[in-house]
Amino acid sequence: MSNLQSLYQSRYGDANAQSPTANNPMIELLLRHRSVRAYAPDRAVSDDQLEAIIAAAQSAASSSNLQAWSVVAVRDEARKARLAALAGNQKHIEDAPLQLVWLADLARLEHVAQSVSRPSAALDYTEMLMVGVIDASLAAQNAAVAAESLGLSLVYIGGMRNKPEEVAEVLGLPPRVVAVFGMCIGYEDDSKPASIKPRPPQPVVLHRETYDLPAQDEGIARYNAAMARFYEEQGMNVRGSWADHSAKRVAGPETLSGRDRLVEALANRGFPLK
User: Fold this and answer.
1) Edge-to-edge strand list for the sheet holding 98-105
2) With 0-12 CB in 10 A as exposed, 13-18 as middle and 19+ as buried, what is 151?
3) Among the CATH numbers 1.10.1840.10, 3.40.1190.20, 3.40.109.10, 3.30.450.180, which is that of 34-195+260-268?
4) What count of other Cβ atoms lies within 10 Å of the Cβ of residue 262?
5) Interval 206-264: pLDDT, tens
């Protein structure tokens, strides 16, 4: 079996998955991605590696070249511990040698507009927040690929949105800047290896010409089965199918880990969202 075929079968949790012939080392690197939460305690991420990762991040597309994103690199143990607590007591935030917190940053645009005596009223609109979030997401994914190409591992941390005001205080963020997500980066602890988590069959997410919701049902059923096998193989105590698990996560505001008040928090951070 080719390496690509093996990666496809792992990525889709399907021993019968057939890989396309199109392939290169970059595609294989992307297919090998895993969310790693256990890091070697004695291996740091160097400043040289960090600079290379950020250069890759800055090579991502940016809407109208507005560069509406920033990132805070956190190594300080006390600050990581505080972020871990705010993000729902995720211990791996403390354990990872480097935490990158990716930001939607409209403060810089307001500042440069003021520097040339121009108005900046458009920053009050939801579109501009979306620009910042999208810019940060594109940059972060470039950074993730760069980090993995250097032999590092990572996991995204959506919990940075649980308590946006407190995270902003820890990081010294000015108004019009908000954390979108974090990213733990380090060398994987070889004694606690992570596995490739299956993704839905392509017909669930790939629509040709027009969107078709009912056509996804067969693929979702296959994905439920693939995830059930994955949960069992990993010894994960997950009750029900992927559909059950996902439905529980969207059941109501109580399942959002505090993010049900995100509109209020964004307003407090200087985003009126007109």
Assistant:
1) 69-74, 98-105, 177-186, 153-157
2) exposed
3) 3.40.109.10
4) 15
5) 999 999 999 999 999 999 999 999 998 988 888 889 999 999 999 999 999 999 999 99
- What pTM did the predictor assign? 0.96
CA 47 – CA 49 distance, rounded (Å): 5
Residue type present at position 83: L
199's tokens: 């993704």
Pairing label, strands 177-186, 98-105: antiparallel
Distance CA 33, CA 3 (A): 14
Give me the residue label for tokens 């005001």.
Answer: 165
Domains of the chain, by residue range, sit at: 34-195+260-268
Crossing angle of helices 126-149/47-58, nearest 10°?
130
